[in-house]
Amino acid sequence: MQHRSPIINVMTSAARKASRRLLRDFGEVENLQVSKKGPADFVSNADIKAEETLRRELEKARPDFGFLLEEGGIVEGKDKDNRWIIDPLDGTLNFLHGIPHFSISIAHECRGRLLAGIIYDPVRDEMFMAERGIGAFVNDRRLRVSARNKLDEAVLATGIPFLGRKHHPATLNMLESVMTNTAGIRRFGSAALDLAYVAAGRYEGFWESDLKPWDIAAGLVIVMEAGGLVTELTGGPDILATGNVLATNDVLHEPITKLLRTAIKENKNSPS
Ligand code: IPD
Ligand code: CA
Ligand code: CA
Fold first, then answer.
1. What is the pLDDT of residues 229-258, one digit of tens each?
2. How many structural domains are present in the chain?
3. Digit-coded pLDDT (tens) for 26-63
């Protein structure tokens, strides 16, 4: 972004600050892989520390804003219109296993409307950011969703529900439907970065169900500002409320929705 607005500057500098310690902790986690106890407690501490840094930095800049924090929940601000929606570490399982693919996600919401978002990948030093009406960027480069318009050339990413999550049979149906019609499916493990990658044109689409607002709020703004489309899996508008998201480039939204819709119809207990 050539001339960043004050709000984007506030968000990016908070993310950079939190990322320094996160990266140091990630180095430590790589060492802890071989220890018997494993790095689980250490990682949950790293997560909490990152959230504390983000909250402190954002409060310094905008003392009255509220928060929706993954770890800390809802924090009411004096200003009832504006709040930050934050995931301090998206891709925790990757982090825990020493896999260098995770991110920090911050969105600015005003009166229930998402106005800006940043997603920072500290390992690659990629700062994805967008503001309504201004466009989406990664570092200084403008983002645009991919121009691929053929399903059989499309790469899609998804999230696969794990132990304790719902919708395992529906996910298998959707995977079958998408894998038999596209060039390939990826599962990288950070929903925020998945959305950023759709915006960057690295893949044509991403879908996942049962996500939380902090997983997707920033990414939704970034995809929209990069010219992409975001809906529920079958096309509905209530993404944040349902946690079901399909983000695609502009041309493949309809065919991909059709694939998911067919898969979902075959399974009564599916997400929408
Ligand atoms: C998770 C990641 C993952 C997605 C999960 C999320 P976390 O967030 O975004 O890609 O599949 O559904 O919960 O727990 O790493 O912050
Ligand atoms: Ca998350
Ligand atoms: Ca998280």
1. 999 999 999 999 999 999 999 999 999 999
2. 2
3. 998 877 776 666 778 888 889 999 999 999 999 999 99
Q: Take atom 11 of ligand 1 and give the residue whose Cα is closest.
A: 159
Task: Tell me the C-alpha distance between 135 and 125, whole Å.
Answer: 20
3 state DSSP class of 242: helix
| Interval between CA 128 and ligand 3 midpoint (Å) | 17
Q: HSE-up of 5 (CA within 13 Å, CB side)? A: 16
Residue 88: inside a domain: yes
Task: Note whether 59 and 72 are within 8 A (CB).
Answer: no
Question: Which ligand 1 atom lies nearest to the CA of residue 70?
Answer: 16
Please identify, among 125, 142, 159, the residue that sits at the C-terminal boundary of a domain: 142
Pocket test for ligand 1, best of 162, 163, 215, 245 (most atoms within 8 A of CB): 215
Mutate to test the pocket of ligand 1, among 190, 208, 214, 220 (most ligand atoms within 8 A of CB): 190
Q: Does a structural domain hold residue 1?
A: no
Give tens-digit pLDDT for 7-22. 999 999 999 999 999 9
Between 24 and 40, where is the model more confident?
Answer: 24
Helical (H) or strand (E) element with 158:
strand 155-158
- The CATH number of whichever domain residue 101 belongs to comes to 3.30.540.10
Task: Give the pair of three-digit tokens for residue 261.
Answer: 């819709």
Same domain, residue pair 35 and 110: yes
> Which structural domain, as residue segments, surrounds residue 233?
151-269
Please state, in angstroms and rounded to a whole number, the distance separating the CA atoms of residues 26 and 243.
28
pLDDT above 90 (res 167): no
- Measured from CB, residues less than 6 Å from any atom of ligand 1 are 87, 90-92, 159, 189-191, 208, 211, 215
Kindly report the CATH number assigned to the domain that includes residue 188: 3.40.190.80
